[in-house]
Structure formats: C-alpha cells, structure tokens
Amino acid sequence: MDKNTLESLKAALAVTPDNSELFMVVVKACRDLDEYEDAYQLIKEKTFELENPDDQHLAGEICIGVEDFELALAICRADTAACQLVKARALLGLDRKDDGLACYRKAIAGNPALEDKNLESRLTGRITERSVSTSDSNVKLKVISNDDTDQTEITRLVMPEDEKITFTDVGGLENIKKQIHKKIILPFKKPSLFQRFKKKAGGGILLYGPPGCGKTLLARATAGECQARFFNVVISDILDMYIGESERKLHAIFDNARQDTPSVVFFDEIEAIGGKRQYTREGTSSKIVSQFLSEMDGFANKNTGVLILGATNVPWAIDPAFRRPGRFDRVLFVPPPDHEARERILEIHLEGRPADDDIDLKFFSKQSSGYSGADIFNLIETASDFAIEASLEKGEEIPLNKEFIVNAIKEVKPTTIDWLTTARNYARYANESGQYNDVLDFLKKFGKN
Ligand SMILES: Nc1ncnc2c1ncn2[C@@H]1O[C@H](COP(=O)(O)OP(=O)(O)O)[C@@H](O)[C@H]1O
Ligand SMILES: [Mg+2]
C-alpha cells in the first residue's frame, strides 16, 4: 500500500469510526509504512473493543513500541500465547515482574517457539544472597544475578554442589558402579562394620578413560549415592601465579572437606597437578605436588570419612607417586559406552524433551558406535536444534523425530577412537604393573586390538 491509498483509507475511517474491519486495515497499513505514532493514535482513540486475538496482539505490540504499557495490557484480553507474551512485556514495563513472569510462562507453554530468554531473564532478575565460607572467614556476598553464572563462579571453588545426581543419571558403566558401590559407598554407609575389620573408608580413587565418557558425571553421582558433600575442584582454579598461593588454596579445600564429613573431594583433570615433569608447565612447581601428596597421606592415616576422587583423560601423564598405597591406590577405567549403555544414554538425554514415541533407541545406539556419552548428548542437542528450527519456521512445536536424529548423526562425529588408539600403545608398550589391563580387555572385547 502506498501513502496516498493510506490517506484515503484514513479519511474513510474518519467518516465511519466504528468500522472495526477498516480500522484494522488502517492500523496494519500504518505499521507497514512505519507510521507507528499514527497507528498508536488510532488505537488510543478507538471507540470499540478489539475482539479478535490477532488484532489484540498487533495493537498491543504497537502500544508497547511507544511504551504505553497500560493500554497494551487493557487491549490484550485474549488467552492466546501471543497475547500472553504481549502482556508479559507490558507488565515488565510496569515493573510488575511476577505477574509478567506468569504470563510469560503461559505464553511459552502455549507456544514454545515464542521463547525469549532475554525477556525471561529481565523478568526473573532479582537480587540473591549467598553465604560463602572460605578458609579463614565467613563472607557474605551479595550477588545480583539474572542467570546462575555468577553463582557457579562463586560456588565452584569452595562450595559443595547442591544438585544431587545419582547412578540412574549415568548410563551404562554397570561394572564400575558395582565396584564403586562395594569399595566406596558401603564403607561410607556402614563405617563401623568396616572399622571392625580394620578396613578404611575413604582414600583415593582415580578414574581414567576417554573424554566425555562420564568420569565427572560418575564422580558427582558417587557423592549423590553416598549422600556426602561434594567438593568439585577445578585445578586450574587452584593454580595461582603467586608463590605459596596454590598450596594455600589446596589446603583450604582439604580443610573444608575435613570439617564437613562425609564428603567427597573431586579433583577433575588431575594431570594438571600430578603430571609428570615432561607434561607440566614450568610454573606448576613440585611444591604443589608435595602439598597434595601430604594432604592425601594425612587422610590415609586418619579415617576421616573423606573420599578423594580424581579423574583424568591422560593417565599416562600422572606421576607414579600419586599411585602409591594410601594415595590413589584404586584405579578404575571408565570405558566408552557399549551398545546397551548408549541406548540408556540416549534415553537419559531425550528425557523431558518433546519427542515422537516411535524413535527406535536400539537402532540409534547401533548407529552411534564409537560415540562417547558427551557425543550422544551432543547428538541430541543437535537434533533438538533442528526441531527448534523447524518449530520456529512452522510457528508451532515440532517434536524431535527420527529424521532430526538421522541428520544429527551426519554432523556429530565419534570422539573415542583417537583416545583408544593412543591408549593401546601405552597398554602394549608401557603397561607397568598391569595398570592398563582393563584397557586391553576392553580392546580385546570390542575388536580394536
Ligand atoms: N554414561 C553417561 N550417561 C549419561 N550421560 C553421559 C554419560 N557419559 C557422558 N555423558 C554426558 O556427557 C557429558 C560429559 O561427560 P563427563 O562426565 O564430563 O565426561 P568426562 O569427565 O569423562 O570427560 C555429561 O555431562 C553427560 O551429559
Ligand atoms: Mg570430566
């Protein structure tokens, strides 16, 4: 429509202001020609109610554009998802965030394609207070957060994780779960029985295997199963350029764990501390290694109810001193998931997402040979991206289906093969005291030897 036609329509509307159909034609034309102010004036002065939800939505959006939130709210009375979203934005403008959030939730429940994270975080943004205890004092930190990134930052180093996960969240690895149950969880749950037989609870367990196969997940689940506090230590957070700082931080972490038993202290990617000299950078001195070892030995002497778990993708880079009795004396191989495990992992990661009922998990588990758990997660994420794209295109929710997963398999490549190739060489030529026997067994079983 050009401006002249619009002018004549406006003139016609002036004569018959109650003509609601003509009214909407003019409002739309104004919007299309970027005459928002005119459109708004018309809406403001109209003498009748808009009944059609699509009309309400359109008029509401124009009001929001000129920040007349009251009017937008008055106009959008319908229950459609689109109207709820306009209401949510209007309520945000009026600083009624809780009401706005309720409308926003209704909107995306009605049509997930309307999701707007930016709007959501502005509606949920509030001030939270967390107390964080460090080695020397109890500090209260005030955090203004719109999402939980800040919280994770603060909790990462010293706070135990809150969210409990258990073995059911970990697909496959039945054998390892059994061993962990016997060697870790039972001694934790029935300490006096073990004491009578002079068996110690606690000590160190090292998990190794290809990346993305569930070491970190298993460690967290172990803590969940023991109902122990879980301290997740990211080693790069401890390493500090100032002399003595790294050791102090490390000591603080062990101290924290001691005061809060039963607890599990998990050192992820432990090679960053316990690496053989050829693998460590100049800066990570042997001081931190000896600090670590003496903390561990301290635990071995006392039966403290603290379990130390370590995980690494590069077991051959770990200093043998870490494996002496009383330190990481139990070493478990976390293999890539087998056929059944992959099926379960697919199921775990599909859970809670809109998906067709007829997705054949057995078929896809066969198709994903060589995939790690993380690869499978990636696969489902990629398939979900496709479903979201399709949903946005169609303007309605399209659930995950076979086709999306087939297409995702073309994009996501398996990542465990390289690791197994490297591990095979170590297992063949540097298998001191049979430490890689589990890897050899695995390779024998799955025909890669
Ligand atoms: N056995 C598994 N069951 C379910 N999910 C898994 C499994 N293994 C890996 N994943 C998925 O991959 C992600 C990364 O796994 P992670 O435990 O961090 O691997 P690793 O520590 O061995 O490198 C997990 O957060 C999870 O989403
Ligand atoms: Mg990990």
List the helices and strands and how they pair.
Layout: H1 3-15, H2 20-32, H3 36-45, H4 53-65, H5 69-75, H6 81-93, H7 97-110, H8 117-124, E1 126-133, E2 138-145, H9 149-158, H10 174-189, H11 191-196, E3 203-208, H12 215-226, E4 229-234, H13 235-238, H14 245-258, E5 263-268, H15 271-274, H16 286-301, E6 306-312, E7 330-333, H17 339-350, H18 361-367, H19 373-394, H20 402-411, H21 416-429, H22 437-445
Parallel strand pairs: 3-6, 3-7, 4-5, 5-6
Antiparallel strand pairs: 1-2
Bound molecules: adenosine-5'-diphosphate and magnesium ion.
Task: Describe the overall structure.
The protein has 449 residues and is α/β, with parallel strands linked by helices. It has four domains: 3-124, Alpha Horseshoe (Serine Threonine Protein Phosphatase 5, Tetratricopeptide repeat), CATH 1.25.40.10; 126-156, no CATH class; 160-333, 3-Layer(aba) Sandwich (Rossmann fold); 339-414, Helicase, Ruva Protein, domain 3 (Orthogonal Bundle), CATH 1.10.8.60. It is built from 22 helices and seven strands. A hairpin with a 4-residue loop joins strand 1 and strand 2. The chain is elongated. The protein starts with a helix and ends with a helix. The model is unreliable at 127-161 (pLDDT under 50).
Question: Brief overview, please?
Answer:
The protein is an alpha/beta fold and about 450 residues long.
